[in-house]
Amino acid sequence: MSSRSIEVLRLGQRFVRDDRTLTHLCLVSRALGAESIYLEDAEKKVTGTLEEVNKTWGGDFKAILGVPWRKVIRGAKEEGRIVVHLTMYGVPIQDVAEKLRGLDKILLVVGGPKVPGKVYHEADYNVSVTSQPHSEIAALAIALHEIQSGEELKRTFRKSRLRILPSARGKRVVEN
Ligand SMILES: C[S@@+](CC[C@H](N)C(=O)[O-])C[C@H]1O[C@@H](n2cnc3c(N)ncnc32)[C@H](O)[C@@H]1O
Fold it and tell me: Contact, 117 vs 17, CB < 8 A?
């Protein structure tokens, strides 16, 4: 398993808070190999949901609430993390994927409905997943997949209460 560390930052302002989108960003980050997500503004219930998911399905993915984006980016840079901002205006991910795969520590930044202009300057890379508008959840999933070359699909989660036995039909779940 790779020793690469990926954290996620979701930029967000109070007046457009959407807890369902935030929960999905958490679930996608967790399932696809990130170790934590910073949410500038989210209800406590988002972390409650995640704790339940961790208890049932394993791992120790964390959501960290309420830290302003500038502070998250500053902290990331101080610890040598490379800041990769996902935006439809950036360079195509297929052109930089090889470089991104070589990085040990990454902060992947996704926006909401409005992204402050400064983020584009603070980022080490501004990266697009197609040059068409779509969704932060989709962009995040594809970026995580590209950066980890699909290795994240084979990941197992430690200390789960339940485990799925993949099956062509029906649902097979066992207790650990
Ligand atoms: C609904 S979009 C709104 C973007 C907004 N118009 C802006 O200022 O960039 C929310 C977020 O989804 C992500 N996103 C949407 N389309 C993307 C694309 N084609 N490539 C990469 N990220 C994208 C970006 O992180 C963006 O900030």
Answer: no
The C-alpha atoms of residue 126 and residue 6 are separated, in whole angstroms, by: 16
- The pLDDT tens digits for 145-176 are 999 999 999 999 999 999 999 999 999 999 99
pTM for this entry: 0.95
Residues with CB under 6 A from ligand 1: 86-88, 110-115, 128-130, 132-136, 139
88 Cα: distance to centroid of ligand 1 (angstroms) = 5
Task: Tell me the residue range of the domain where 162 lies.
Answer: 5-175
**What total number of domains does the chain contain?**
1
The CATH number of the domain where 26 resides is what? 3.40.1280.10
Nearest to 10 by CA among 92, 96, 111, 101: 111
Ligand 1 centroid from CA 136, angstroms: 6
Other C-beta atoms lying within 10 Å of the C-beta of residue 124: 15
